[in-house]
Design goal:
This protein has one domain: ADP-ribosylation fold (Alpha-Beta Barrel), CATH 3.20.170. The protein is globular and about 40 Å long. The protein is built from four helices and seven strands, in the order E-H-E-H-E-H-E-E-E-H-E. By secondary structure, it is of the alpha+beta class. The protein starts with a strand and ends with a strand. The longest helix has 16 residues. A three-stranded antiparallel beta sheet has the order 1-3-7. Strands 2-6 form a two-stranded antiparallel ribbon. Helix content is 30%, strand content 34%.
Amino acid sequence: MKKQDLFRPLNQAELDLILQLNWKAFPPRLADQPIFYPVLNEAYATQITKEWNVPAYGVGHVVQFSIPLDYFQTFKVQTVGAAIHQEIWVPAEELGKFNFHIIDSIKLVSSFYRK
């Protein structure tokens, strides 16, 4: 099976919820979060984590996971800045279906802390 690797910047609370879900799923979105946006590369996820999560929460994490390539291709890739700023937009109400497609488990790849 061909797969697509994706990344997600997280704060500590989000990481704790993923841990509670045994590294198999992302938690439901909050009422004011209409989309779930995994990003296509680690550099972009790291940038978000360092620029947003660490200043706001004192800590930020980047996780990596994979979904089947054919499922990934059902989403339009959004470029939201420079060429590296690519992500897909998953409507909040479809996150359960998205989670079902995660291959194996979500993996923690890096953590950053306020200095």
